[in-house]
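Changelog-adjacent note: as of this version, every example in the card shows the full chain rather than a window. The one below runs 299 residues end to end.
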Amino acid sequence: MICLLVPFALTVRSNADTIVVGRIVDQTTESGIGGAGIKVKSGGNTLGEAVTKQGGNFTVAFDVGSSMDVRNVTLLIEHEDFEEQSLLLTITAGRPDKPAYNVFLLPKALSGCQMQGEHGGVVGHFGSEELAHNVTFALTYSLLTRIQTLNLDVDFQPMFVACNEARPRSPLHWGNFAKALGADVFLSGNVEEKADQNSYDVNIYVSDRFGLFIPPLHTRNHSVTLKEAAAAKLEPETHAAILLAVANGYEQEREYAKCVEMTVAAEQLLQGPTPEIQKSRQKCQAQLENLGLVKGGTP
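Full-length structure tokens:
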């Protein structure tokens, strides 16, 4: 009798719990988020609940019944300091489709700083909200002037978003801010007022979502007229770093001709190539069918 019951116990699943494990993580710091509420929902029903521990880990158990069929449920994550996030899980015969789930949350303070598909950057903390906006305007006008002198189409002008709330605590996190906010490049730094009180030395640290600048690239921009953004001029090194990051954004979208245009412009600003710019340009050129039709290409 015992031998007959063993196969039956192995093949029939009755009212057994499905267990989902994972970790909830701050998208900007990659640190775990404690106290986040976890719910597993199916339609309007809540099947299971849990709260993340201090390191962000969670385990939630729920019952999907004895069915061996495939079933979709929603993992809902909520925290008062972070944007709500949800994830669709596929449960097959009581087993989730992954052994563990890592879910990244964006701090609510940064929700208004996300770029909406444009190429460009987010200008983070510079000491005050006014300074962050002034640096953003200075970057916009000065780079537009550079682009016009290089005879590039104004459509190539990168967009910039001011976000003084974006304040990384560690240089290792700067690239995370670019990723979290959907930006090619993330810039932050500080401003030193000159004796004449009409201009500033602007220290800018440039990071990106592609891992080009680790640690962030430091550029010092001298005597910038932040109060008159239309007349502001920043150093070519600052603009070239931004254009290189934007070029990598175009490369990811398979816009290889635009990638080449950006790298050529960066080289012209610096009056010569750097190994990083050259590498990026060559990768994009290699993807083009006819290099002779592209500015900067080899006939």
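Structural remarks: Helices lie at 2-11, 129-149, 174-180, 236-252, 256-270, 275-286.
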